[in-house]
Amino acid sequence: MSVPKGKRGQSSAEFLNAARALQLHSIKKCVGFPKRYTFYVSQQIANCATRVYEYAKLGNSIYPVNQHEVQMRRDYFLRANAEVENLVSQIEVANELFGIDPDAMKYWMNLVNQEGLMLKAILQSDRKRYKNLPPG
User: Fold this and answer.
1) pLDDT (tens digit, 9 = 90+) per residue, 41-68?
2) How far apart are CA 13 and CA 79, in angstroms?
3) Spatial distance between the Cα atoms of 20 and 75, rounded to a whole number of angstroms
4) DSSP conformational letter for 10
5) pTM for the model
6) Which of 54, 71, 96, 135 has a C-alpha 20 to 30 A away from that of 104?
7) Torsion of CA 107, 8, 59, 57, to 10 degrees
8) Could you give the CA distance from residue 15 to residue 74 in angstroms, rounded to a whole number?
9) Phi and psi torsions of 83, nearest 5°
10) Residues 11, 116, 44, 94: what is their CA dihedral angle, to the nearest 10 degrees?
């Protein structure tokens, strides 16, 4: 049974799509930076964006049955969130060096912000959702 378009909400796994979109966009932007900055700027940004996606995917792959697994899941989402914060700093450095177009910068930072907000929402949701699991 399908849900009418007007009543659809955001999927609980939308953070994975957003992380993937952030990774792809970041890599595409980094390809356009000067080659001499590859190892100092471009690679750092691409690696951060890739780790955000990897940690989000790893955290989502854990279906907890005890508190130990809940903590493992939480740790991955916390790492993903830390990488989002690191990515912001790396993008700011790139902007200072290369003068990224303001509209492109706004779009990129919007992707970063969306992912950060979704990861924080998952952490809050998991805290309520898994509080009654047995210790592990």
Assistant:
1) 999 999 999 999 999 999 999 999 999 9
2) 17
3) 19
4) -
5) 0.89
6) 54
7) -60
8) 15
9) -65, -35
10) 120
